[in-house]
Amino acid sequence: MKLELEMNDLKRQEVEFLKKEKELEDKERLEPWNVDTIGHEAISSSRINKISEKKSEAPRLSEEEENRRMELQCAFFKNNGDLLKEFGRLNNLESSEKFLLEHPHLASDFSASFLTIEALNLAVQLKDEEMGIVAEQCIIIQYLLELSSTLHALATNTNVIRNFFKKFRCADPSYMVMFREEVEAFKDRLRKRGKDKRDAAVAEQEADEKAKRIAASPGGLDPQEVFDGLPQEMKEAFASKEVERLQAVAEKMDHEVFLYHLHRCIDSGLWIPDAKAAESNANKSEVTMAE
């Protein structure tokens, strides 16, 4: 009984779709889709698509609804990840149409989210050519979803999918220019976001390394920062690891300035002083390089 109801529902949708297509056929002869309403609404926090000024904001979901949506999205990713990766590597319309007709359930905003994340990961890895292919497949899914919305039909309906690719192949050149511009703009945003993520990862790694250096230092100072802040002649002396050069610098440099930097080097663990040396005679003391 349930299967029969579902079949009847699909038949009803197909009839409505064909009727709507007939009504729009003359109007859309040279306008395969309403480009102005092709949306870029954010699917999740990981989406970075541009939001169309002409598209009304989606109603805000409750926390419960948002959690439920995230659960569904995670399940979709888990169940269809391999298929979506395969689709994301296709680089021609014929293969894309054939693939979606074989797997119509992939005509989903969850697929657009997955492909966006996949393209962003490639952008982070500086795999620009691969990123461009996945980005274009993502835009194709978004255009398909927009057409189905315009027709008030399910994007997973194979008739909608066939009609979309038919219109896409026969589209007016001006619309194809818009499509290419859309893809290029998306790729540019992905590149920028990829750079931001790389920079953030480097900053996080540097912060972790700094924290470890400070934790290991005797006086809670970062040896790298201490070294960078040394006068040039002291830098060269420390870098040479020659005690005699440091002593020579001490003889020429202002006593207070030398002591200030020497104590910072000791507190950071950059140098370890001879325990027998008198602090008052630090400018002549022997020092041993820290390992």
From TrEMBL:
<dbReference type="InterPro" id="IPR013874">
    <property type="entry name" value="Cdc37_Hsp90-bd"/>
</dbReference>
<dbReference type="GO" id="GO:0031072">
    <property type="term" value="F:heat shock protein binding"/>
</dbReference>
<comment type="similarity">
    <text>Belongs to the CDC37 family.</text>
</comment>
<keyword id="KW-0963">Cytoplasm</keyword>
<dbReference type="Pfam" id="PF08564">
    <property type="entry name" value="CDC37_C"/>
</dbReference>
<feature type="region of interest" description="Disordered">
    <location>
        <begin position="197"/>
        <end position="222"/>
    </location>
</feature>
<dbReference type="Pfam" id="PF08565">
    <property type="entry name" value="CDC37_M"/>
</dbReference>
<feature type="domain" description="Cdc37 C-terminal">
    <location>
        <begin position="215"/>
        <end position="290"/>
    </location>
</feature>
<dbReference type="InterPro" id="IPR038189">
    <property type="entry name" value="Cdc37_Hsp90-bd_sf"/>
</dbReference>
<dbReference type="GO" id="GO:0050821">
    <property type="term" value="P:protein stabilization"/>
</dbReference>
<dbReference type="GO" id="GO:0005737">
    <property type="term" value="C:cytoplasm"/>
</dbReference>
<dbReference type="GO" id="GO:0051082">
    <property type="term" value="F:unfolded protein binding"/>
</dbReference>
<dbReference type="InterPro" id="IPR013873">
    <property type="entry name" value="Cdc37_C"/>
</dbReference>
<dbReference type="GO" id="GO:0006457">
    <property type="term" value="P:protein folding"/>
</dbReference>
<dbReference type="GO" id="GO:0051087">
    <property type="term" value="F:protein-folding chaperone binding"/>
</dbReference>
<protein>
    <recommendedName>
        <fullName>Hsp90 chaperone protein kinase-targeting subunit</fullName>
    </recommendedName>
</protein>
<feature type="domain" description="Cdc37 Hsp90 binding">
    <location>
        <begin position="49"/>
        <end position="209"/>
    </location>
</feature>
<dbReference type="InterPro" id="IPR004918">
    <property type="entry name" value="Cdc37"/>
</dbReference>
